[in-house]
């Protein structure tokens, strides 16, 4: 089991944070390289379409009716906050849902280091999350998960 990548989208559909994990090298991946790539745009489009479909099929109209979906090669885990920040983890197929871990990542790491940070922009626009403490704490949080290998 392993985590391949982690994305955060803001309420304007912009990828404000991306992190790829390479489990073979000590540096362990790249940060904010794929924010403007077609991968991030296609991922957001897929999530938007599936979320819209799941809301139409779900009578409860809950915000997080879409939790994860899988393809033949990977599983995508999804969490959306009340402020419309979307957290996405891409893992291998053997990983069960990580909804509660994404909620914890949002509530503990993101809120304390990005939302409560006076130097962070209120509207990101073309800005990206480059806060070193957020990057370090998010990496540490994900590395401590039993699925991170």
Can you characterise this structure?
Belongs to the TRAPP small subunits family. BET5 subfamily. Pfam families: Sybindin. This is Trafficking protein particle complex subunit. InterPro entries: Longin-like_dom_sf (IPR011012), TRAPPC (IPR007233). It is found in: Endoplasmic reticulum; Golgi apparatus, cis-Golgi network. This protein has 149 residues and is an alpha+beta fold. It contains 3 helices and 6 strands, in the order βββαβββαα. It starts with a strand and ends in a 6-residue tail after the last helix. It has a single domain, classed as Beta-Lactamase, CATH 3.30.450. It has helices at residues 38-57, 99-115, 132-143; strands at 3-9, 15-20, 30-31, 68-70, 75-80, 86-91. The chain has a 6-stranded antiparallel β-sheet.
Tally of separate domains = 1
Q: Which structural class do the helices and strands define? A: alpha+beta
Mean of pLDDT? 84
Oligomer: single chain
Gyration radius, to the nearest Å?
15 Å
Secondary-structure element series? EEEHEEEHH
- Biggest β-sheet strands, sense, barrel: 6 strands, antiparallel
Main location: endoplasmic reticulum
GO biological process, one term: endoplasmic reticulum to Golgi vesicle-mediated transport
Organism: Australozyma saopauloensis
Pfam family, one: Sybindin
Helices and strands, with pairings:
Layout: E1 3-9, E2 15-20, E3 30-31, H1 38-57, E4 68-70, E5 75-80, E6 86-91, H2 99-115, H3 132-143
Helix pairs in contact: 2-3
Keywords: Endoplasmic reticulum, ER-Golgi transport, Golgi apparatus, Transport
GO cellular component, one term: endoplasmic reticulum
Organism: Australozyma saopauloensis
């Amino acid at each position: 089991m392993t985590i391949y990548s982690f994305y955060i989208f803001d309420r304007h559909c912009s990828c404000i944070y991306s992190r790829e994990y390479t489990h073979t090298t000590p540096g362990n991946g790249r940060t904010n390289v794929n924010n403007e790539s077609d991968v991030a745009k296609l991922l957001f489009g897929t999530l938007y379409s599936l979320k819209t479909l799941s809301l139409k099929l779900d009578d409860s109209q809950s915000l997080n009716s879409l939790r994860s979906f899988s393809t033949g090669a990977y599983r995508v885990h999804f969490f959306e906050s009340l402020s419309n920040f979307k957290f996405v983890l891409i893992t291998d197929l053997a990983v069960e849902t990580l909804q509660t871990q994404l909620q914890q990542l949002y509530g503990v790491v993101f809120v304390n280091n990005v939302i409560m940070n006076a130097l962070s922009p209120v509207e990101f626009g073309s800005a990206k999350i480059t806060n070193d403490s957020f990057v370090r704490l998010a990496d540490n949080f994900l590395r401590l998960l039993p699925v991170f290998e």
